[in-house]
Design brief:
Elements (H helix, E strand, L loop, with lengths): L1 H10 L2 E6 L2 E6 L7 H13 L1 H20 L12 E2 L5 E2 L17 H7 L6 H8 L2
Antiparallel strand pairs: 1-2, 3-4
């Protein structure tokens, strides 16, 4: 049920994210929908907050995995980079030495190369460093 609520909010132009245990909504659409459309969705979100948090955490984990393994990259992106949301992206088209999932260097080593040592703790679980 909560998945449908989250999808309806997204269709209505809202981005739903987590900030700790708080659910944040930002309108990113072009035209705000009528409140009588949004209020039932907000009420459903409020009543199912715990389930929504779990769902959003799972989505964040999937997005992180997709970013770190470069599954969302365009073919012309060939070098690792850090997004504006501080996610390391390693494109599939990058040199094999960056492909930690195939025995290449760890994400921490790649972050060091990029000069982003501030993100090392975020990726230690991936490489065990």
């Amino acid at each position: 049920m909560i998945n449908e609520t989250l999808l309806e909010l997204e269709k209505a132009g809202y981005r739903v994210t987590l900030n700790g245990d708080k659910i944040c909504l930002d309108f990113v659409g072009k035209e705000k929908p009528a409140m009588d459309t949004v209020l039932p969705l907000l009420e459903a979100l409020k009543q199912n907050k715990a389930e929504a948090i779990v769902c959003l955490q799972q989505a964040e984990a999937l997005n992180e995995r997709m970013a770190i393994m470069g599954e969302n990259c365009s073919p012309d992106e060939v070098l690792p980079y850090v997004t504006e949301f501080n996610s390391l992206v390693i494109p599939f088209a990058s040199p094999a030495r960056y492909h930690w999932w195939k025995g290449g260097q760890s994400p921490c080593e790649t972050l060091k190369e990029l000069g982003r040592c501030d993100l090392l703790d975020k990726y230690r679980h991936v490489s065990g460093n």
